[in-house]
Design brief:
The protein has about 240 residues and is mainly α. Helices cover about 80% and strands about 0% of the residues.
């Protein structure tokens, strides 16, 4: 004869199973909620870092902008990916875009130093490191050429500072061959470099060449900025 309690064992077992499933679902929901919250916080942190980076860049504080963009790269984590899957309707930046920004900022800092005839190997190297993270494509090809030009320009500044002005002028011709027609930063540097070498070598012909290029830059090309205005002063001083 069965005990009375035996009748209820299956029911109890089934109840326990249902309870376990419920608890597992509840735990999953809680975990998902925590991850979503973490991802949301990281998204907000990323947006804050990018906004501050752009603000610093636009105000000319380039070396303060760079670490903000690099820190923004650290926000790309699993919780952020989970958050973005849930918030698929929102538009977000991806790591490639920030690496590209970092390349541009590094090159901008390098060209600020080049304008003062200083080398900038460290910043060119940083640009090269971020460049490696970009996917193959037309944009990477263009940036690769621009970074290679910056590397050569840094070498030019070294040669100039060593007092090898004639060699520097010869090397400038080689750098021109690898530079892109759209590389405005190099074009401005070239004028600056011609002025420096022309004065160092006491060669009016080089200075006249610089004057013609500067006139073209400010009129035909329409480049009117702090550097071009400064170049007129450097040329005539």
């Amino acid at each position: 004869m069965k005990k009375i309690t035996d009748r209820y064992i299956p029911a109890r077992t089934g109840g326990i199973a249902i309870t376990m499933v419920f608890l597992l679902l509840l735990a999953g929901l809680i975990t998902a909620g925590v991850i979503y919250s973490q991802g949301s916080q990281q998204q907000q942190q990323q947006e804050k870092l990018l906004a501050e980076g752009y603000e610093m860049f636009n105000s000319g504080k380039l070396e303060m902008a760079y670490p903000l963009f690099k820190e923004a790269l650290n926000t790309f984590t699993s919780p952020l990916s989970f958050y973005r899957r849930i918030s698929a309707s929102e538009v977000h930046v991806n790591p490639d875009e920030i690496h590209e920004i970092a390349v541009s900022v590094s090159l901008s800092i390098a060209h600020e130093k080049f304008f003062d005839l200083q080398t900038a190997d460290e910043w060119v190297k940083r640009a090269e490191e971020d460049l490696k993270q970009l996917p193959e494509g037309e944009r990477k090809t263009d940036l690769t050429a621009t970074v290679a030009t910056a590397r050569a320009v840094s070498s030019l500044c070294k040669t100039y500072n060593e007092g090898n002005y004639e060699q520097a002028m010869k090397d400038l011709l080689e750098v021109e061959k690898i530079s892109q027609p759209t590389d405005q930063d190099f074009f401005i540097f070239e004028i600056r470099f011609l002025i420096a070498c022309g004065k160092a070598l006491n060669q009016p012909a080089i200075l006249n060449q610089a004057r013609e290029l500067l006139f073209f830059a400010t009129t035909d090309a329409g480049i009117d900025n702090e550097k071009t205005r400064s170049l007129w002063g450097i040329l005539t001083s």
